[in-house]
Amino acid sequence: MSATARTSPTRMPEKMRDDRAGVTRLIADARVGHVAFVHEGAPRVMPIAIVADGDDVLLHGSTGSPWLRLLATGVPVSVAVTAVDALVVARSAFESSMHYRSAVLFGRCAPVDPVEKAAALDRITEALIPGRVSELRPHRSKELAATLLLRLGVEEWSYRVSDGWPEDDDADVAGPAWAGVLPMRKGFAEAIPTFDLREGIPVPASVRGLLAP
Fold this sequence. Notes:
This protein has helices at 20-30, 66-71, 117-128, 141-146, 170-173, 205-208, and strands spanning 32-39, 42-53, 56-62, 76-89, 97-111, 147-162, 180-183. The protein is α+β, with helices and mostly antiparallel strands. The protein has one domain (13-186): Roll (Pnp Oxidase, Chain A).
């Protein structure tokens, strides 16, 4: 990573990581990114599901979405991605914090080639629900036509990780308050069938694989 004016930290440089693979893992864990851009002279931020595809990022939505159509023209964008991994419980409120991973990506979007569109949409499905594509029918032409699929070419990025212990001062360490880290549990609790599911259709392997043990 070559630091630029946009990616150079002004505080806590020790938390910065030169780890592009870590950014990819973060995108997989967070699943949602917040896309920032300027439209008609005003800032906008929109949340959307994102999936890493190599060093690029895929995002998709309706062809009727005005903001996605704007992104498709190649305007500059930034995408913020964050995952909270734990609460850091210090001996004072001031030192309490979180374990987190966060990244900011800078680049421009372009529509995915129509020839690659179905395969790229399958990559999104597989990233969110591994094994699901093999359980589904192929995409219909009407569905492909109604979906705007964009590829964000990442030109610059920054990645920050906070994973340390509470930094209490000596007076608080000598005091009676407890301190430590509370890792956050992650996972899906149950598979709730839709109201109109026909009898006899079991929970598929892809969904069972996401359920917490």
